[in-house]
Design brief:
It contains 3 helices and no strands.
Length: 82
């Protein structure tokens, strides 16, 4: 009986943490949308350290995930929006 209670508590805790992470991701995505609206079509210039930080984070996600999300920055020329 104690074993099943322990499992239930772990699953409940994992669900709570997952929900918090999903809420945080949703907030950051909306924040990025708002910032892109304010920026418009202006180009943002990054220094080498900023590019390196983004590349490190992008490598952890993988190419498939990166193609599914909208980018504010691109490694080369941005893709045409037409």
């Amino acid at each position: 009986m104690f074993r099943y209670t322990w499992h239930f508590l772990l699953v409940a805790l994992a669900g709570f943490i997952n929900r918090q992470q999903q809420d945080l991701i949703a907030y950051l995505q909306e924040e990025n949308r708002v910032l892109r609206e304010k920026l418009g079509n202006k180009r943002i210039l990054l220094n080498v350290a900023q590019k390196r930080r983004l590349a490190t984070a992008a490598a952890k996600l993988g190419g498939k995930v990166l193609h599914e999300i909208h980018h504010a920055f691109y490694p080369g020329d941005p893709p045409s929006l037409a």
